[in-house]
Amino acid sequence: MPQRLTAGLLAVLLAAAFPAVAPATETNDAETLNRARAAAKDLGERLKGELVAAIKSGGPVTALQVCNTVAGDLAIQTSKQHGLTVGRTALRVRNPKNAPDAYEHKVLEEFLEKASSGADLAKLEHIEVVSENGEKTFRYMKAIPMAAEPCLACHGTELKPEVKAEISRLYPEDQATGFKPDELRGAFTISGKLD
What we know:
Blueprint: H1 7-17, E1 21-22, H2 30-58, H3 60-82, E2 85-89, H4 102-116, E3 125-132, E4 135-145, H5 152-155, H6 161-170, E5 184-193
Parallel strand pairs: 1-3
Antiparallel strand pairs: 2-5, 3-4, 4-5
């Protein structure tokens, strides 16, 4: 009968296999890690698919409307599918509901620091087990680099007047413009309780 990995051994293996990944502490559940990665990937692909379709059908203004009405539902659907809490956050958010908690803020700052030292944002992720309200919770974050397409149309430095107006209408407290390709746009954030 195979033995389960100890937390220390898993941390060493993760660090060796994924040098940009912070080692998990107190978890030996590789399945949870794989589920977290799959959930982040699924949410990213679903959201991108919706936004690309909206841009093709009506341009960036339509994409903003879709993002405003669909992104939250996609996160809920992805959470249910994977049995985890799935979302997005950033240091500069468009939707205040996506503002980072203290933990997420710290990890996002670490991503910025690693990127400024030459790390590839597309490969940055952070895995950790934390204690929340007396329960062990698995926290995973995957950096989202700013992509040229389709993201610059609504998050870039040169927005069309109609896009600026729609952002102001939908998100009066918007902080998520002025990005350049390959900057840290934000992160997928995944969490789940551990047994």
